[in-house]
Structures are given as C-alpha cells and as structure tokens.
Amino acid sequence: DVVAGLTVGVMVVPQGMSYAKLAGLPVQYGLYGALFPVWAYAVFGSSRQLAVGPVAIVSLMLESGLSRIVGASDNDANSALYENLAIQTSLLVAITYILLGLFRLGFVTVFLSHAVTSGFTTGASVIIGCSQLKYILGYDVPRSDVLHEMIKNFINGIGEFNYKTFLMGGSSLVVLVVLKYLGRRYPNKEWIRATGPLFVSSLSILVTYLGDLSDKGLPIVGTIPRGFPSCTAKPWFPLTHFGDLIGPALGIAVVGFMESIAVAKQLASRHKYDLDSSTELIGLGMANLAGAIF
Description:
Elements: H1 2-22, H2 27-32, H3 36-44, H4 56-70, H5 76-102, H6 114-131, H7 133-137, H8 147-156, H9 163-185, H10 190-210, H11 242-271, H12 277-293
C-alpha cells in the first residue's frame, strides 16, 4: 500500500498539472483536485484500488463546455469567472452522482452501449492529443473541437514553430515509447513501463534546471502558489449560469462514471471482490463535492 501510494502520489503531480491546463485552469487546480477528492472517495467509495482525480476526457469536456460560456479567458475577469464556473460544475456533478447513488440507479450502466462509450473515448483521445500538440510545437493555436479546423490552425501558425520545445517534447515522447516497449517485451521488467513517466518527468526537470533552459527560450510551468487550497464554497452561489452548466455537468457525470466504473469493475474482478455501482456513485459524488469545497 505504501509503495502504491507513493508511486501514484508522485505521478499525479505532473499528470494533475497537465490535466488542469487541458481543462483551461491554472496548474495548481490539478494538484488540488488530486488531494481532497481522494480522501473523500477512500471513505465513501467501494473500490479498493481505484485512483480518483483529474482525468483527460473530463478535463476536455469541462474546457469545451465552459469556453462556450466564457469565451477567451485571457483577462483577469474572464479567468475568475471561468474558475468559478468550474467549481460550480464540480458541485453540480457531485449532486448528480449523490442523487443517483441514493436512489440506487447505478444499474443504468448496463444500458449504455460499450460501442458508444468506446467510440466517444477514442474520438476524445484524438482531440486531446491534437490539443496538446501546441505544447510540443511551441506555439499557441486557436481552440477548436473540430479536427480539420484544428489541423488547419496548426498549419497556419507553423511560422512560430519553436524547435527547442519540439526537441524537448519529442525526445521525452521517444523515451516514453521505448520504456513502454521494453516493459512489454520483457515481462520481468514490467516496472520499467510503470515508472517510465516518472523517470521522464524527473529527467526533464533536472535537464531544464541544470541547463537553465527557461532563459534559453523553453517555456516552463513557472511558480506554483504554496500551501493548501482555500475553501471555495463561496462561489457556489448564485448559480447564474445554471442553464448553461447543467448540460456539461450531466455529460461529465455520465462519461466520468462510465470511465470510472469500467476500471473499478476490472480491478474488482482481478482481486475477487464485489463492487456496488450505487456506492461508487456516492463515492464519486463525495469526491467531486470535496473538489468543489477545496
């Protein structure tokens, strides 16, 4: 348990920050979202191995839904509104989960087609991958949920290509792929595959620090606010944009639960214990509630 906790805890730092940027939020929100929700789920959830926290598809759905309401969040007013709406969305998702769990509606998952969820996940993964290309290519592009428009935007901005960022990101991807291959190729070296992201993250930090790459044109995350998150229950009300938020909130609840329950069921089957889908709903609801509070 200690080894598993330390491994996940270390990995969630770069992962949480990445998903926060994918959701259009400051990087510290990814760290906050990986802290208190885990504690809440450990108390109310039924899976013994499931790790709860920021995930790629939900981050993308949140960014897509809120951007339609707020638009560009470049100025301080829009950024503050965007963050408040993200907190309110988390609250609405929490209420949805808890109500479904209390009414024992976890069984509805059997009516959701695997083909639908698989197709959605695959499509979302393509959009997520393309949306992250700007961090490897080194230049920003206008946001779009349409694949061909996204490709067109990348082509139009190719003049701003940053080879330093590309070399750093590309080499990191190559190392990740090689480590993943070695882990699969040699079963007794499976730990190489599991620790690959941690190794690449640590190596990148070390190279950036020792080479002082931030002063040589390589963008970095920068300073992250210290300390524990403050209470964010105050922005819950008034729900001025309730009509605009309820759609994304319900979508996030459905997709988030489908993704979570699929992994939880697989783990429960592997470790031979029963999983209550309605209890899972309550556990996920309390996790989202904790995220909305902190």
